[in-house]
Write a sequence for this structure.
């Protein structure tokens, strides 16, 4: 009973601290504890929270870990995965709302933030296409392909076909480099040229190709490659 009282008291103290500054002074593992309070209501979650941060290194890296990786930590099951991945999903959705229904080219940094949150920590290459209308407002964005750790097959004709289906006037293509280095490869440059040429034949403009990595991003337009 004493252990239970101590455990319940710790939870209340942590909640009270959070209400005072909304987590500004919290360590990473304390933020994880708060998430796990609801997921594991009858468990002392402090040791698990510390173990998760020790395994993945930071709060953000933990949120973007795969469910199977999270479950490798003793004590972490489906409830833990749901608690953590729901926060990741909320972060991606919040970032996406910042670029929806706005001219993308005038809210460029919000677009970069969204792409970074959605893709930078993916373990495999992911190829995403943003479809824009005549006013460069985002119609939708779709993951076209997911590949291996260093390669994603891309089919330019399929990208342009989908743009025509959506009545899009322009596209921005985005993919990530799991290595963390966003420097374009020769294959990236050649593939971008193919997409641009396929679009030009049907009046679809390729505004940019962004490569997202944990070390930053690269813009083909800024680099003079487009």
């Amino acid at each position: 009973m004493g252990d239970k009282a101590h455990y319940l008291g710790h939870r209340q103290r942590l909640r009270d601290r959070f209400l005072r500054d909304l987590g500004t002074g919290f360590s990473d593992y304390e933020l994880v504890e708060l998430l796990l309070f609801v997921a594991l209501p009858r468990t002392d979650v402090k040791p698990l929270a510390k173990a998760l941060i020790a395994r993945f290194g930071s709060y953000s890296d933990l949120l973007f870990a795969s469910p199977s990786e999270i479950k490798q930590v003793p004590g972490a099951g489906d409830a833990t995965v749901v608690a953590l991945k729901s926060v990741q999903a909320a972060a991606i959705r919040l970032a996406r709302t910042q670029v929806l229904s706005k001219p993308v080219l005038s809210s460029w940094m919000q677009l970069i933030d969204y792409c970074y949150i959605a893709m930078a920590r993916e373990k495999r290459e992911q190829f995403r296409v943003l479809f824009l209308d005549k006013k460069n407002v985002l119609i939708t964005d779709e993951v076209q392909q997911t590949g291996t750790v260093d390669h994603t097959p891309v089919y330019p004709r399929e990208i342009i076909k989908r743009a025509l289906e959506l009545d899009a006037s322009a596209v921005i293509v985005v993919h990530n480099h799991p290595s963390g280095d966003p420097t374009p490869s020769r294959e990236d440059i050649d593939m971008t040229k193919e997409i641009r040429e396929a679009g030009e034949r049907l009046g679809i403009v390729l505004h940019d190709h962004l490569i997202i990595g944990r070390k930053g991003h690269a813009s083909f337009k800024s680099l003079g490659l487009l």
User: Anything to note?
Assistant: The chain has a mean pLDDT of 89. DSSP finds nine helices and five strands in the chain. Residues 2-21 form the longest helix (20 residues). The longest strand covers residues 138-146.
